[in-house]
Write a structure and sequence with these properties.
The structure is a single chain. The relative contact order is 0.12. A hairpin with a 5-residue loop joins strand 1 (about 5-10) and strand 2. Helix 2 (about 95-105) crosses helix 3 (about 110-120). This protein has helices spanning about 45-50, 95-105, 110-120, 135-150, 165-185, 200-205, 225-230, 235-240, 270-275, and strands at about 5-10, 20-25, 30-35, 60-65, 65, 80, 155-160, 190-195, 210-215, 215-220, 245-255, 260, 265-270, 280-290, 295, 305-315, 315-325, 325-335, 345-350, 360. It has 2 domains: about 5-235, Rossmann fold; about 245-360, Nucleic acid-binding proteins (OB fold (Dihydrolipoamide Acetyltransferase, E2P)), CATH 2.40.50.140. It is built from 9 helices and 20 strands. It is of the alpha+beta class and about 375 residues long.
Amino acid sequence: MAELQLKSLEKKYGNGFKAVHGIDLEVQEGEFMVLVGPSGCAKSTTLRMIAGLETITGGEVRIGDNVVNDLVPGKRGIAMVFQNYALYPHMKVRRNLSFGLKIKRQPKDRIEAATGEVSGILEIEELLERLPKQLSGGQAQRVALGRALIKQPEVFLFDEPLSNLDAKLRASMRVRITDLHKRLRDEGRPATVVYVTHDQVEAMTMGDRICVMKDGHIMQVADPRTLYDRPANAFVGGFIGMPEMNLVPAVLTRDPDLRLTAGGQSVAVPDGLAHRLGIPDGAVTMGLRPQHLTLVAPGSDGAFDAKVVNVEFMGHEINVHARLGDAVLVAVVPTGGMGAEVSRGDLIGLRPDGARIHLFDAETGKNVSLTNHH
């Protein structure tokens, strides 16, 4: 296995459109790196440049000690798993798995041993004599995974591999792929993985680290907990987390007490937030995670009063949607508390956890509440 480096990587098309804007990224040997972002953020374009399926118009891709910009895909030491599986329809599973090794003229006993090992790891031994058209979506995805695994490449590349599967199968395949990655690491055969998805739940549950992209730029690279607790900007804060972070226009004032005003209401800035602020008064975007809002009686200290517009019963919790000025906030509350009694049209209080409020610069989106924040 090898580490992967992207240095000032660019993609510019003939019509002048720039899809990737000089990004830098390092993926350590054996690391599971997820590229995530909304449709059109250039995560798949970036992956295809690593693979050699898109031409690179600036910067370099380095795999191990080699700059691979000018190498064809087959010479880069990569294996790719696609969204559509890309199995050979006329070949049985056994031959689909072994075809890459046959092309490389590997000895027959080596091919048979590798096919047996990979099919055992992925529990597809009973599928070896079937054609792709006889496989379910989950089975076909495991065969595609096996075909990549059998090559023992320097780097594995996954392009939205689970997006064609139903929700239940997607969840089980997430576990299967991450378990496989951990097993190879434990066996001393670490697999370097770059995995593209638009699904932030997939990203959070699978990645050692996550690279959040927007419009061909990298917004932040960090482990899942850091992205959730310490988003570098409002985009990352709003993209990572379910339900998504509430982003509310607000004004920070010191007159003389530190206060936040939103939706025509003003509350004292809690100590948990005040001690880490080193910014002047003025317009900010207040970030409140739904899980960090507590339902209280209207008029309570440190709370914003809001009118309930919708209540979603989720089984183990309740999502309360309530209007504060022009914004609608979502609060995730336990089924056993006040949430069980609220209904549309009620006036409620929403008290943010002071240590968990994020303030973002209204113009740049940068998180200005991370100073001294642990």
